[in-house]
Amino acid sequence: MKQKALTLFSIIGVIFICYKSYSLIKREIRARSYISNCQKVKVGMNLDEARKIMGDFKYQYWTQDEMSGEIIIKKDNEGNLLYSLEYDIVFGGSENPRIIFDPKTLNVTEVYCKE
Description:
Elements: H1 2-38, H2 47-54, E1 70-75, E2 81-86, E3 98-101, E4 108-112
Antiparallel strand pairs: 1-2, 2-3, 3-4
């Protein structure tokens, strides 16, 4: 009985490790695609066009924040509000890919695509 329980928990552990590894690899592939697509986004584009280029629209309805870009509002050094759309960072990356936009016109004002 003890041997069967140990075997069962070992199998569950291996399945869990495989699942987590698969999830990490899948997330990494998505994050790398955001970086490669980010370089195609240009200043002055409409935010919807930029999100289509990034591939963000295919996730927006069923998983808001986990897989698609997250809207972040920050203050800059002068106290002005900055609205940005930030994406997942790659493993070991220094900065998130982010698109800064004007909330009134929804036009892209800055693009950061660093890895």
